[in-house]
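#structure-requests
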Amino acid sequence: MTRFRTAGALAGLLLMAGCGGGPSYREWEAGKEVPVVAYDECTEEVDATMRLRGYPNRPLPETPQFRYRKEIFGQCMRRKGYSAE
């Protein structure tokens, strides 16, 4: 039984060793879906931040939390290279 665990662990290590090295960004280009991906990523980040602060994920427009959410969402999108239309 121990022999199988050891073999499994070694196989896992060999697989992970093959995944070493950093990504080559030169082979990536922006696709048509990039704005949607950035929007989705920022939505997830903002939801997590809102939860950590104890705010509702989707606050009402007349609350200060709505302005806060809008501002941190804008910061995230600008950080990803997008500007407001």
